[in-house]
Structure formats: structure tokens, C-alpha cells
Amino acid sequence: MVAALCGLAAATVGGALLFPSYGHIGLAVAFAASGWVGAAVLGSILFRRRWLRLDEDARRRLPRIAIATAIMGSAVVLGAVVAHAVFPTGESSSSGRVAMLIVLVTLGLAIYAVALRVLGIATLQELLAGMRSR
Q: In the chain, where are the structural domains located?
């Protein structure tokens, strides 16, 4: 209950602060951040109660997952900058924006999969097996 209320408070305060300057984008950012606030509060509560413990495998993989995520994010931002420089009119139409989105998502997925493999987090076969088992 406390975690949900913290998330709600973060959404409300964030929305009130960001909406005047950024409009609907500010609201989206506030709501996205409120999810992370709620998750962080819930995680800290569970950790203090000793209901959430990380095993050795998680302790080993989590920092490298964060590095892989940073690599992916950097690649997508760089890809967007290059795409805007090469195709300056790419955003002028809906089809151009959709094509840009498809390219950037594919780039991000490929870079993340390679980073996971290179950093020894998971192989492509393990990732595919994990998706098939659900």
C-alpha cells in the first residue's frame, strides 16, 4: 500500500510540475517515473523485511545488465542522431517516422543481444528458450 501511494504521489506531483512546461510529454514522463518510484519503494520494503534477496547469479549479472542497457541506449541515441543527419526529412511524414521507429527498435534489440552475449550474461539460445517457455 505504501509503495502504491508513493507511486501515486510521484505521478501527481510530477505531472503538476511537468505539465505546464512540457504538456502531455511531461505527463507521460511523470507516469513512467512513478512506476519506477513505486517499484523502488516496494523493493526497499521487501529487502528490509528480508523477503527479497539476490542470489549470487543475480549479483553477478545485474551490473552487467545495466552496462548492456547503457550500451543499447547509447547506440539508439547515436542511431537517431545519424538518421536525422542522413535523412533530415524522415520525420516529415507518418511513414517516415514509422520507418525510423522500426530501424531504431531493431538496432536497439540487436545491440542489446550482442552486448548480453559479449558481457557473458546470456546467449541467443538462452534468450530464445526463455521466450519460448512462456
A: 1-53, 54-134
* CA–CA separation, 86 and 90 (whole Å): 9
User: What type of residue sits at position 57?
Assistant: D
DSSP label at residue 93: S
Number of Cβ within 10 Å of residue 37's Cβ equals: 17
Gap between the Cα atoms of 127 and 41, Å rounded: 29
pTM here is 0.75
Q: Are 67 and 119 contacting, i.e. CB atoms less than 8 angstroms apart?
A: yes
Q: What is the pLDDT of residues 30-85, one digit of tens each?
A: 999 999 999 999 999 999 999 999 899 999 999 999 999 999 999 999 999 999 99
Looking at residue 134, what is its pLDDT? 62
Q: Note the helical H segments in the chain.
A: 2-22, 24-48, 56-86, 94-118, 124-132
Q: How many helices (H) and strands (E) does the chain have?
A: 5, 0
